[in-house]
Design brief:
2 domains, twelve-stranded mixed β-sheet, 17 strands, binds threonylcarbamoyladenylate, alpha/beta, single chain, binds magnesium ion, globular
């Protein structure tokens, strides 16, 4: 089966919705990254997601909705704080974790009693949910371990022949996966930073906590709040290392290590001062652009033919925290401070 890449006309969205109702999986755009969607009520369809991605069975999926009514069917005991967060950030790149209802098969939540829910703002995603009439379970549409896809072409490169269709909604608006928060009894815990930044969350929940796994490696035998924290992520084929320094120090370091068959991941313009293969990920002072370009740049590293990549350290404020959270995983937590 060759994978069809479809422009999201009404007709093609109706076709994709039909595939979903038949228990098939479909690649869909969202404002964060592309997702691989299936009917969240259909255990067999959900299993096809795990199979196509090669996703570890213990890693739960996010369910996508397009109304608060849909939420009521999927979760139990919605805490007040969820309404506050929803009214501020939904539709948009925020995922909240609730207690799950019995209607959702355990395959979606990898056996957990909690469920991650997100109401995307992307028009095509919302139309697909509307047209299918289904809540859609959808992880990022990459092969497990690879950088998340921010274009339909990335999805095609990873999943061609494995899925019937991809709706091509163009490049994703944000380029990094949604912010994930856990709603515990009386607190909100940030599990994965995203375009809804820590600073933005604090405006609604001043005492929001940041889980240790956001910036630190968790040991294999340590309990994690989110199973995704344990798995290898976002990796190009070359080995990545972050250099925490200014550009002058970075440049010297690269020059001193030139015999390593290395490349560099740098901010715009810096490539002109280095004579090793480079990928760029945006202007040094523009975190929004860096977020948008990060996964594309990590994928582009595969075309450089190098074994090792030294990456510049992003600013970690605002959406920068999300950029660093992804980059540090791509680097297997290897950071050199100069
Ligand atoms: O922006 C996004 O969130 C994209 C688009 C497609 O919506 N989706 C996405 O899904 O990034 P995925 O599967 O690549 O990442 C979901 C993350 C994983 O780290 C998973 O472990 C965590 O959310 N997660 C899902 N359900 C959970 C739960 N019940 N408890 C804790 N963590 C959960
Ligand atoms: Mg993913």
């Amino acid at each position: 089966m060759d994978t069809k890449v479809l422009i999201p006309t009404e007709e093609n969205i109706a076709y994709a919705a039909e595939l979903l109702n038949k228990g098939e999986v479909v690649g869909m755009p969202t404002e964060t990254v592309y997702g691989l969607a299936a009917n969240a009520y259909d255990e067999n369809a959900v299993e096809k997601i795990f199979k196509a991605k090669g996703r570890p069975q213990d890693n739960p999926l996010i369910v996508h909705i397009n109304s608060m009514d849909m939420l009521n069917d999927l979760v139990e005991n919605i805490p007040q704080i969820a309404y506050k967060l929803a009214s501020k950030f939904w539709p948009g790149p925020l995922t909240m974790i609730f207690h799950k209802s019995d209607k959702i098969p355990l395959a979606v939540t990898a056996g957990l009693s909690t469920i991650a829910i997100r109401y995307p703002s992307n028009k095509v995603a919302c139309m697909l949910i509307e047209e299918s009439g289904l809540p859609l379970a959808a992880p990022s549409a990459n092969l497990s371990g690879r950088p998340s896809p921010t274009t339909a072409n990335h999805v095609f490169n990873d999943l061609n022949t494995k899925i019937p269709a991809i709706l091509d909604g163009g490049p994703c608006e944000f380029g990094l996966e949604s912010t994930v928060v856990l709603l515990a009894e009386d607190k909100v815990i940030l599990l994965r930073p995203g375009a809804i930044t820590l600073e933005m969350l604090k405006e609604v929940v001043p005492n929001v906590e940041v889980n240790k796994g956001v910036l630190h490696q968790v040991a294999d035998d340590e309990e994690v709040a989110s199973p995704g924290m344990k798995h290898t992520h976002y990796s190009p084929r070359a080995n990545v290392c972050i250099i925490d320094s200014n550009f002058e120090q970075f440049k010297k370091y690269i020059e001193a290590h030139k015999d390593e068959n290395l490349g560099a991941m740098v901010f715009d313009g810096e490539e002109l001062e280095l004579d090793v293969p480079c990928v760029t990920f945006g202007d040094e002072d523009d975190s929004i652009i860096q977020a948008k370009l990060l996964f594309n740049s990590l994928r582009a590293i595969d075309n450089l033919g190098v074994d090792r990549i030294y990456a510049r350290m992003p600013d970690v404020n605002g959406i920068g925290l999300a950029i660093y959270n992804r980059l540090i995983r791509a680097a297997g937590f290897e950071v050199i401070q100069l």
